[in-house]
Design a protein that fits this description.
The chain has one domain. Helix content is 23%, strand content 0%. The chain has 3 helices and no strands.
Length: 112
């Protein structure tokens, strides 16, 4: 099986797909699984996920850390990826990414 972790509904849904595939005797190798911190942890934790697909998305000579959108995510070195053991899958969430959400913005106001 090769579900995409971003399209199937995230890690929880991927685990459900994995369980069904494992019961059918199939390996699960997520599409681009090592491209996310969640997929990296999945590939190491699940016995029926023998490898992790990783897309090398940079031009020659440009370090992956410079082009990858998830700060703190482990990058491959010598063909191997070692996921972070830091909290939150090792992702470094920047303060400027977090903004208050106005939950009243979409509510209809009386008389309007």
């Amino acid at each position: 099986m090769q579900p995409d972790i971003k399209w199937c509904g995230g890690l929880t849904e991927l685990l459900k797909i994995y369980t069904i595939a494992e019961a059918a005797g199939l390996a699960t190798i997520p599409h681009g699984g090592a491209n996310t911190p969640f997929g990296q942890h999945f590939a190491l934790a699940m016995p029926e996920s023998p490898i992790a697909e990783y897309w090398m998305g940079s031009d020659p000579g440009v370090p992956l850390e410079k082009v990858w959108p998830v700060p703190g995510m482990s990058m491959p070195k010598d063909g191997c990826v070692r996921p972070s053991d830091a909290p939150g899958f090792g992702m470094e969430i920047r303060d400027q990414w977090i903004a208050p959400w106005d939950h009243t913005a979409g509510l209809a106001r009386p008389g309007s």
